[in-house]
Write a structure and sequence with these properties.
About 40% of the residues lie in helices and about 20% in strands. It contains 13 helices and eleven strands. Strands 9-1-10-3-6-11 form a six-stranded mixed sheet.
Length: about 325
């Protein structure tokens, strides 16, 4: 169960914490002249930023092509290969050949160094892969001229510094910077009014539903009634229920039940907790009532879930919007 004795986390932070989201800087490259690099389809969310220079990016499957300017930040959420290039007509080298056996996080290609791109990936608990990736479009492009990108500029510069030098604690510093960059990308996408599918991210960003959502996240074991939640959001029951379903993809009390199961899944995997204790903390009248609800929503009994190997979360891919 999340422990928040000193501060109350917002719902987006709650989800990212349960999903064990980690952002990692994997390196970058400098390039000049005529050059092109083909990257394989990532198995995780991939981010990259242009610290300097202009270049092109083209996704292999959709053919979507974007011009990247200095200071731009991009997040790729789909497992789709792509090419980054000075000119998309140039024959690309394969990224695995370019980065193989590298002695430095930053490698060089082409002739010159007018372009510097830093990149990395975002990894998370496999059970959360659908709700994280499916909430976002295939490619998020935060342009340098936006207010959020200007805030990210400091982060990008520090990431380049950490990658270019061997400093004490550099690995941890780079990871923290990458995590902060990922959060700023989410904020930028939400602030831009870009498309967000019905689900947890759209719900967590909805200001009218925020008071009700905070109640459910702060006290998931309380027997909330629809009237109480609607009152917190200053809406009638009918309007609240309709808006919640439209934004989240599920009814309010269905979301509450699913959120409880997310907390239960996390607790069963990360701590030695009795099912009866967990049932009481999450507001169930008995262990059997909790076990029945867990099996209905997650697909397996709590005991089997807790005993499964650590990588078995993908076998039980409960979706908050299902």
């Amino acid at each position: 169960m999340p422990n928040r004795p000193e501060m109350i986390a917002d719902p987006i932070s709650d989800i990212l914490k349960l999903a064990s989201v980690e952002s990692v800087v994997s390196g970058g490259f400098v390039a000049g002249g005529d050059w092109a690099i083909r990257f394989p389809a990532p198995d995780r969310l991939k981010f990259f930023a242009s610290a300097r220079g202009r270049l092109w990016l083209r996704l292999a499957d959709s053919g979507e092509t974007v011009r990247i300017e200095p200071g731009d930040v991009l997040l790729l959420t789909a497992p789709e290969s792509f090419v980054m290039a000075s000119d998309l007509a140039v024959d690309p080298v394969e990224a695995h050949a370019l980065f193989a056996g590298r002695a430095s996080p930053i490698v060089a290609t082409g002739e010159g160094d007018e372009v510097l791109v830093i990149g990395g990936h975002v990894r998370f608990d496999r059970a959360y892969a659908p709700i994280l990736a499916e909430a976002l479009p295939t490619l998020i492009h935060v342009r340098a001229g936006s207010a959020e990108a200007q805030r990210m500029r400091w982060i990008i510069d520090r990431m380049v510094e950490e990658s270019a030098a061997t400093l004490p604690g550099g690995g941890l510093a780079s990871a923290q910077l990458a995590h902060l960059l990922f959060i700023h990308v989410l904020r930028a996408h939400l602030a831009s009014g870009g498309p967000v599918r019905a689900g947890w991210l759209r719900l967590a960003a909805d200001p009218r539903l925020a008071p009700a959502l905070r109640l459910m996240h702060e006290a998931p074991g309380k027997p909330w009634r629809l009237e109480q939640l609607a009152q917190a959001a200053a809406m009638s029951r009918t309007v609240f229920a309709a808006r919640f379903r439209d934004v989240a993809g599920v009814a309010p009390l269905a979301y509450l039940a699913q959120w409880r199961m997310r907390l239960a899944m996390h607790a069963l995997r990360t701590g030695d907790i009795a099912v009866a204790t967990l049932a009481d903390a999450l507001g169930y009248a008995s262990e059997s009532a909790f076990s029945h609800a867990f099996k209905r929503i997650v697909g397996v009994a709590p005991g089997r879930y807790a005993a499964a190997p650590g990588d078995a979360d993908e076998v039980f891919p409960m979706d908050l919007a299902s």
